[in-house]
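Quick check before the chapter quiz. The format below is the same one you will see on the exam, so make sure you can read both the input and the output lines.
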Amino acid sequence: MRRRRRMTVAALLAGLIAALFFTVGQIGGPTDEGDGARPPRPPLPEPVASTASNVPAPTETPTVKGSVRGTDGEPLAGVTVRIVALGDGKRSSTTIRTDAKGRYADGALAGGNVIFTEILKKGYPATRRRYEDGPSIEPGETLVLDLEFPRTFSLAGFVKSVDGKIVEGAQVRYGTIGIATSDEFGKFRIENIDSSVLKREVHPRLMTSAPGFVTDEKTLHLDGKTANFDDIDVVLHE
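Here is the expected output.
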């Protein structure tokens, strides 16, 4: 009786062990290749490389380039160029320096029409120009804008008496450089003055004389911030 019970218990244990091994085999899967082997897993897809078709193209900024030359046609190196453009109600500007050959190039302008240019060179008057309908900067294109920097400037103003009356026929002399005569409105203009005079430590004196008046003599303190000094008033005393 006891032997039969032991055999029954052993048979139950053997059945449990067999069932356990069968379950583990089902979970882990067969390890041998051949019939009944689990097919290999498919490889992961390769990452898609970035191409022009799936990456938005960067926004292109319109560019401007050109050269700066003096009135004698020679290129000017080390000149500062400032350009202002207006497009869609918005202003954009750029400031560039010319290279050894007087050339410049920049891509900071946001398109539109050029409305203002300024050329600066140390020791010389600035040259500024405003445009009513300036050249257009189109997206993706390069505007070629060649500029001229005058090596000369002019002096202009009015000659009046101490009581505010116009003095016609007054002779206005700027050192030994230039001379002019006031017109019927009292206005005078001395043109084509070499800008190199602004580099002098002592500037030439402006002398104005007219019949019946005491000669007026003054030193002009020219700051070089404008190409034409048009607001010089000379007052003569009798």
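If your answer matched, good. The longest strand covers residues 152-161.
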